[in-house]
Amino acid sequence: MSEESMDETTDAVNPLDHMSRTVELGGGFPVRHISPSQLNTMSTCGMVWYFSYVEGWKVPPGFAAHQGSGVHAGAEMNFSQKVESRVDVRASDIVDASVAGYDERLERDGVSAMEDSGRSVKDQEGSYRDSTAQAAAVFASDIAPKIQPVMVEKTIEAPLTGVGVEGLVILGTVDVISEFDLHTPEDERRLIRDLKTSGRYWSQHDVDTMLQLGFYEVLYRALHGKPSEGGVIDLVNVIRKKTKVNIAAKEFTTVLDDAACSQTLWRLRNMVNAIKAGVFVPADPGHWKCTPKWCGYYDKCPAVRNRYRAIIDMGGK
């Protein structure tokens, strides 16, 4: 770096002079409930949680998120009636409901069209609508027939005590609580299931270490007073390779034991303590989500190398 460019940014200011800056929340604890998505966000990047729940800044989802919401809409339509009928609706009906869900969420929430900068927004919209239909068809043929739901989109709430925040609760909506054995309806054992669509391949390690299922197990035990028989991720992979889209389904099972619950509760307490202290640890700068492409708050974040913000913070010109 030349002497001239250094003078433009720092003006010989000592960076340590600015270490006393802290986040002042004001107005008490900023949320009344903590959800699995909040816990995941805080664990990945505390600054994203801060921008979302303290500042109240909202970033539109990308097309891939709308695709996932669409497939969820089709699955919910099917499973809601299957609780009583024990029969899936036609695959074409699931596909239609999924595409309608995609369109509805796109119109309601807008879109952050940064995932494929080489294509127009209109082209991306059509491509993801097509892959939503294809993913829903794979769900209908390869996943739905194996599941007998007992509860669908069940919202469960439980108090989070011992953290010094009166009235704080944990809250989550479980996609499906299903029978353990599809062919033995009298069996009262239950599985906690979550449907995912993903543009990458998953491993068993991904499922065994995910916080969401452990969070749901805590809520399940609060509601039923006993443990579930475990967690299941019903995965629809939507792998995009240039002009080709490969779609396949896979099921992962995992144990949801006392250790999973203990981990969840420890992380929840740690999260609450961090929020109360105004401490929001950012993602590692090398994390794939810590880029302008994947983070809608990137340009506003003081934890990244932003030249404009550096000029302000370091007293430069």
Structure commentary:
With 317 residues, the protein is an alpha/beta fold. It has two domains: 44-57 and 296-311, no CATH class; 63-267, Lambda Exonuclease, Chain A, CATH 3.90.320. It contains ten helices and six strands; from the N terminus they run H-E-H-H-H-H-H-E-E-E-H-H-E-E-H-H. It has helices at residues 3-9, 36-44, 46-54, 63-85, 91-109, 121-143, 204-208, 211-224, 258-277, 307-313, and strands at 33-34, 149-159, 169-179, 190-198, 231-241, 244-254. Strands 1, 2, 3, 4, 5 and 6 form a six-stranded mixed sheet that branches. The longest helix is centred in the first third of the chain and has 23 residues, at 63-85. Residues 1-13 and 17-22 have low confidence and may be disordered.
